[in-house]
Design a protein that fits this description.
Order of helices and strands: EEEHHHHE
Structural class: alpha+beta
Largest sheet: 4 strands, mixed
Number of helices: 4
Radius of gyration: 20 Å
Strand content: 15-25%
Distance between the termini: 25 Å
Number of strands: 4
Helix content: 40-55%
């Protein structure tokens, strides 16, 4: 099994090289600012079987979802935010309360958290 595209990113906060595998983002490698890209590439080679195992788990879950007919609904984030703000404005007028700001964030769901366990360099 091939690893596919791996995203390498520099991180000021990372203290070690961190590999994360998620359904939405794929394979990501956070490299501390003091580490070299060469060290990160070597670390990925050492952890290749770990990455393949987690990619296989994600593929297995996707196959199960397709077989069971469960599909996640896709949506436009900007459209969703506009609908939430419009509903909030309506409710604020109806119940007489005021608000200052609306923030819409991407929260990880339980499935996403299963695949964000970090593998640290030893």
């Amino acid at each position: 099994m091939e690893l596919g595209l791996i995203h390498f990113t520099r991180s000021r906060r990372a203290r070690r090289i961190i590999i994360s595998v998620s359904p939405a983002r794929g394979v990501r490698v956070a490299i501390p600012s003091r580490s070299s890209l060469q060290k990160a590439l070597e670390f990925v080679q050492v952890k290749k079987k770990w990455i393949q195992k987690h990619l296989a788990l994600i593929a297995q879950i996707d196959r199960r979802k397709q077989a069971s007919g469960v599909h996640l609904q896709t949506f436009d984030k900007a459209d969703a935010k506009n609908k939430i703000i419009a509903r909030l404005h309506h409710l604020a007028g109806a119940y007489g309360f005021k608000y200052n700001r609306v923030t819409v964030r991407n929260q990880k769901n339980a499935l996403g958290q299963l695949f964000t366990r970090k593998q640290h360099q030893s």
